[in-house]
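Input/output pair, single chain:
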Amino acid sequence: MVATVKKTCRCGAVEVTLAVPAPGAGTRVTCYCKDCQTAAALFGEADVLLSPGGGSEIWQTTPDRLTLEAGEENLEILRLSPKGLYRWHARCCDTPIFNTMSRVHLPFVGVVLRQAELEGAASGLGPSRCRAFTKHARRARGAPKADRGFASAGLQVLRRMASAWISGRARTNPLLGGDGAPIAPVKVIPLEQRQVAVPPHLREGAGTS
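Output:
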């Protein structure tokens, strides 16, 4: 039996169903990179999205596991730079929803989870298996001191992508339109706006390592 997890944006306009047929359908990771922390600030979500150490919780899976139930017209893609990751959000309430590569046809998607979702709807996605870019973590109680599981998580991504191609599941991608282009418009954040959103502990001269 396929388990399902419901995800919505803050205002409820965007609704997504995640299909979890088996534990191997996805891997939950915690990312502490500068870009994820900056994106959380841009979305006005830092307090509800990040852990005390500045970690973002992401469930890495393949797009065929997603069903867009409502609010597709509210999706927008933000990039922190012209070559940055595609960060899909609900522009109705600035809620981060997914991360994908710029080549959206590749069978990879990272579902962004708010902290409250970890104890509710997303609790069935299992514990975090990876801590990445911990050198950028905020100095806070419980903050990690070293990366863990990065290589394993990367291998799982490659295995799921290969499985999606071989099985034909890669052809099912709700994030692509009939013309092969992303279903949402792409917007690049201006450099000045991005620089203002960088967390203080990661700004040049902040004295972090």
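The chain is about 20% helix and 25% strand. The CA atoms of residues 43 and 94 lie 5 Å apart.
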